[in-house]
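Hey L., structure's done. Input below.
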Amino acid sequence: MKFGRVDDPSVIDFQLPDIDKKELRFLEKYKSDEPFQLYVGYPKWSKADLKGFYPRGTKDAMHAYSEHFNALEFNGPFYQMPNKDQVILWKDRTVADFKFCPKITNSITHYSRLINTDEKVMAFVDATVFFEEKLGMAFLQMPENFKPKNIDRLADFLTRFPKGYPLAVEVRHEEWFADQQILQELHQILRDTHKTGIIVDTPGRRDLLKMQLTSPTAFIRFVSSNPTIDRLRLKDWTQRIKEWKEAGLQEAYFFIHQKVDAETSFLSSEFVEELNEILGTELPIATKAP
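Output:
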């Protein structure tokens, strides 16, 4: 994801904003004895994208990916509406306890801009429910020029969206985050419709971190800057997830956008080690083929 990248990340203040006390009170009602669910992955899985990762002779890259990560930010459906048979094939290529987070097709978000999309939405949902227990949380990403003047359209879309289907929502235009009243209205719509607001941590758009938790699920998209800075950023996220978990958060999806080549290690490896140690989780730790 190139969105929000900068030439010199050293000039960026990467500190996470303080947790709003209202956000903690919101999470309190979700406290339970159920085990916390945490999923960490990448937006890409192919041999071409993850160079130097798969052992020589690997025939099924998706299956191999699922052995090292427990979730995938699945961007493929964004470009072409999936069908039932494709979804079943993808599902069967992965190990148990793996989660797909499919991106809503661009014909709904970017071309139709949420107008007269009921049939397309049902086609997407009817296909992707065949991920069954491996369906994590789908996500809706609106184009960058989708502004708050269309908030009623967004509210109507989310109200009409099939109940019980897990959905996260990302908006990008600066106006959503520049006006506190607009942002609070967006938060309320997401909470009223039981949708998750996506938090984007990208160098050039720190305003996107103003998105609050709107459900007991966190959905974070992390864009890399440089390895030294990123390790510190991920340490901060480990603590933030710990605080949310203690407050009542039930699950979290964390997807890392970074360039991966033969010389570059996965940012997730050290991050997952810390998460496992601090949160008591047992996430797989990715290591490149020798």
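Strands lie at 37-42, 71-74, 99-102, 138-141, 167-170, 196-201, 217-223, 251-257. The chain has a mean pLDDT of 95.

-- N.
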